Amino acid sequence: xxxxxxxxxxxxxxxxxEEIAAVESGGATILHVDVMxxxxxxxxxxxxxxxKSIRKATSMTIDTxxxxxxxxxxxxxxxxxxxxxxSVHIEADQHIHRTLQSIRDAGAKAGVVINPGTPLNSVSEAxxxxxYVLIMSVNPGFGGQKFIPRSLDRLRELRQMITDRGLDVxxxxxxxxxxxxxxxxxxxxxxxxxxxxxxxxxxxxxxAVRALSNKGAVWV
Length: 220
Known about the structure:
Layout: E1 3-6, H1 16-25, E2 30-36, H2 48-57, E3 61-67, H3 75-81, E4 85-89, H4 96-105, E5 109-114, E6 132-136, H5 151-164, E7 170-174, H6 182-188, E8 192-195, H7 197-200, H8 205-212
Parallel strand pairs: 1-8, 2-3, 3-4, 4-5, 5-6, 6-7, 7-8
Helix pairs in contact: 1-8
């Protein structure tokens, strides 16, 4: 069973509180928040003040994805701001173990993220220290991109790696998830589906979450 994590990157920020309430009413339990610094990726989004405000507006799990350089300097600050999950890119952090441990020590779930062009074995050691792995199924930086088909093989390989090692590590996937591919992505091993345009670009975010959701066990 999988969970839908609506990504506010595609939401209407003028009506953000309403958009968040809508996906929560549709059954979402995780809210995905992309933090971009214009350096690690070619876009700038939101920061700590917005996460603090979102925390006041919802009881959903806040899943903060840091697409920034030197994430170890900021990860715990996002936990303090209200994030329940914080993920950092393997490509951006030379001290990934220390960062993941600091997130856990601060009371949040720690995730490691991997880009489409990065070999999967780059996270082979980090997964021992993570609660989840986020596979990017598009190149990070912008919403509305098409799913990269090769991501399915990477999902299967990662799921097998986790199983072979007997680890309790979840798999999250982000990029191009919609009604056309969600079933095959779930079959490949994803536990958490990040969906932006497929939720906030469909007119009724609550109904979009219901349509994408496979009702059942939810990991929070």
